[in-house]
Amino acid sequence: MNEPVKLKAKDYKSAVKPIWCPGCGHFSILNALTKAFAALGIAKDDTVLVSGIGCSSRLPAYVDSYGFHGVHGRGLAIAQGLKVARPDLTVIAMGGDGDGFSIGGNHFIHACRRNVNMTYIAMDNEVYGMTKGQASPTTPADWDHSKLTPHGPGVRPFKPAALALAAGAPWIARGYSGNPNQIAKLIAEAIEHPGFSFVQVLSQCITFCPEQTDWKAIVNEREEAPLVDADEAAQLFLHEDGFQTGVLYNAPRATWPPSPPEPQSQDITRGFCL
Amino acid sequence: MTMTQTELSVAITGAGGAGVISVGELLLQAWAREGGRGLLRKAFGPQIRGGESAALLKLTESERYTAASSYQVLLAFDWNNYSRFGDEIKLAPGCIVFCEEAAEVPAEVMAVKPDLVCLPMKQLAAQAHEEGRVNMLALGLLGQLLGLSEASLSELATQKLAHKPLAYQQAAQACIAAGTGYGLSCDVPVPVPGAKGCWYISGNQAAGLGALEAGIRFVAAYPITPASDVLEWMASPLEQLGGNLVQAEDELAAVNMIIGAAFGGVPAFTATSGPGLALMTESLGLAVASETPITVLNVMRGGPSTGIPTKSEQSDLNIALHGLHGDAPHLVLAPLDIADCVYTSAWAVQLAQQLQTVAIVLSDQFIGQSTAVISEPQRCAALEAAATEDNDYLRYRLTESGISTMATPGDAGLRYTADGLEHNEAGTPSARDDDHQRQLHKREHKLSACSYGDAWARAEGDGELAMVCFGSASAALCEAAELLAEQGVAARTVSLRLLAPLQVERLQAALAGCSSVWVIEQNHGAQLYHYLRGQMDFAMPVHSYARAGPVPLSGAAIVAAMKEATAA
Q1: Can you tell me whether residue B105 is helix, strand or coil?
Q2: Which of A104, B30, B159, B561 is positioned for an S-S bond with A73, CB 3.0–4.6 A?
Q3: Could you tell me the residue ranges of all domains in chain A?
Q4: Residue B381, domain member (yes or no)
Q5: 0.90 cut: is pTM over it?
Q6: Using CA atoms in the order B136, B138, B140, B141, what is the torsion angle rounded to 10 degrees?
Q7: Digit-coded pLDDT (tens) for B157-205
Q8: Distances from the Cα of A165 to the Cα of A11, A32, A199, A228, B322, angstroms
């Protein structure tokens, strides 16, 4: 049942106080999410936020909807199981770059491929924050701030948008924590997209990566319409700097599962009777 | 046929893909139509095509199905594949052996002084029809030996080949006729058929059926031998019932998908085998902590690692009981035979739903992939639903039973976030000592305070000697009890269906007055023996008979081990 009164963004917040550090980019994603909910008039009772483990994965508890805070890397699997079993719900998964692209990498590519009608927000701060600052799959190769990799990870970072495209994601967007209004718009569009929608949000971690405050100067909003051609999108995602924001790719395709066939006989034992 | 006996075992061996299993299936189906009872065990090498394959048929008068300990009839398509089974197919002295060439018969076969029936099967099949296959000729030959009619075999074969071109069906019919009409001079005593009106089902199908009948409407699947056929069977009936099956990218996804569906209020299930269960265990802890009901069927195979993936063992008891991290109480159950897979699987689903926890069901390759003729299986009655509350809702409220109401998304005003983090009654993450103690107690108490009734075990017989087992070892245990009875020793058997939480008081009562107890299981490490010793005190000496697969447990081997221990 929808609430009769139109809800404001703050009405979607729960009473639980975030554990995030002051200045964390995730605050603006939380604000943007509730703003998107208010803009769409989302019904709290029919919405589920699902996450894995990490700083960003604490988000579901901060929103007054149903939620599931799972184990590391598996939020997308929980979310897809839920959405397939309960297509009537609005399902949004979220998590960090380590959760989504490292331990949960296999689920990420298969979620893109499967195209279940849900949204995934990767809150990408290029670092494992909760374990106190180790390199993640999106950390620059020469980032030498971690004791674990004192010379830097030395490995080329993932390009999440390119990965999503290659795996079949039909809708790809990127936002930046310094521009919450844009994130709110992207999330609202993502929820309305009929299929798997992937929003990468560059979310600064000033605790472990203070250099990320430089992002403000690099981030640029893409002015062109979203690409619909996968070849063009591949060129863009392979060669860009990763700081363009906006809806980058939008090529809807059939979602999974297809509509169920008409219910048949309830007798499932007939085949066993001799 | 003039002679009868209570059971007859027939082995058919050949290369994988040669149609050996089809011969076994059609023979058993035709036999069942006549009112016969029987078990078809399937044995494979680890190869998919071109490896060894055996249909091991046991025709009986009762429905207590142990694997045959020796075979009175062997039909070998070739000797190379027969030999790959080694001790698994033991021939009875004087058994009838069908083969192509007398000259090629291995020495170990000749050692049992067989009644050799050498005939050019390939040639006869080719003569019967240009598309003729030797397996259908073999079906005709064995059908003749068992007194089955050509018409019945032919009808069943045609049904089985319904999706194939007409020429295949005609070839099968011609070969069956050639086999049934071939002038055999040998004869074999066969069991007396019983009442008709039976089911023909495998343990894996039965477990899937029980789950669906108990309300499962979401399945996530990742293929693994010997559990894939549970999932494959469930796909169509699940669709028929309006449910969903997702083929997951791995077992990590499979278990989390069913957690997601179950959180949504849709009863959810997956099936796997040892390595898959190992991958799932982290998230089983999540389901325990978040109190999300899920059922995981583990069809056990030889382990560890890839082990012997196509053959049976009961060696995943330890991981099922103790594999979860932290203090994570959950249910572990084991079906006792093929028919009981329907009951135990349904019971597990219902208990998981009622207690909002994880149920692991330990089936195995023996009962999972064997097909049997059974009477219509007993069903598990629906459990009473727990009371619900909706005022001042707290998802993890501390209640007397330990069970708190689980709201599902869509329920108005009962919103909460399920969490693997320790939490308070509302579900808010909490690292406080008092919340941790209370929630640990809640999750343990709801399982220990539950009344599980009489289904916890199947206890039979009387006597000072007791034998205890779990799951599929039950049939061998009962066979051992019968052998002992023939020798004047009364024994009681306790086959455990509910392993966790262990029903200590009931087990102690079942063993009261015994002078000795034997714990019987099919694994190397005596896992059940050590579990029972750790969980309860015994007033009498406790002995272990633990033998790993792949050779199935047998009553005779159990009795022999007991004798040896007594003599020592």
Answers
A1: coil
A2: A104
A3: 24-272
A4: no
A5: yes
A6: 170
A7: 999 999 999 999 999 999 999 999 999 999 999 988 887 768 999 999 9
A8: 35, 25, 12, 11, 42
CB < 8 Å from A in window 345-404 of B: 373
The DSSP bridge partners found for residue B221 are: B247
State ipTM: 0.97
Q: Does residue B380 sit within a domain?
A: no
A4 touching B (Cβ < 8 Å): no
CB contacts under 8 A, B 260-279 vs A, are 260-261, 263-266, 268
Region B449-463: mean pLDDT is 96
Residues of A in contact with B415 (CB under 8 A): 44-45, 64-67
B218-221 and B199-202 as β-strands: parallel, antiparallel, unpaired? unpaired
pLDDT tens digits, A98-135: 999 999 999 999 999 999 999 999 999 999 999 999 99
- Beta strands B465-470 and B516-521, pairing class: parallel
* Inter-chain CB proximity B252 and A47 less than 8 Å: no
Q: Poorest-confidence range of B45-59, B272-286, B421-435, B502-516?
A: B45-59
Domain membership flag for residue B186 = no
Count: domains in chain B: 4
Residue B206, domain CATH: 3.40.50.970
CATH topology of domain A24-272: Rossmann fold (3.40.50)
Q: Is residue B492 part of a domain?
A: yes
Rounded distance between C-alpha atoms, residue B83 and residue B15, angstroms: 11
| Average pLDDT of chain B, as a whole number | 94
Confidence class for position B386, pLDDT limits 50, 70, 90:
low
Q: B292 to chain A nearest CA, in Å?
A: 11
Size of chain B, expressed as the number of residues it contains: 568
Measured in degrees and rounded to the nearest 5, phi and psi for residue A158 equal -65, 155
Residues 6+ apart with CB under 8 A from A271: none
Q: Is the pLDDT of residue B430 over 70?
A: yes
- The answer to whether A265 contacts B240, with C-beta atoms less than 8 Å apart, is yes
Cβ contact A94:A82 at 8 Å: no
Q: What's the domain range around B47?
A: 7-181
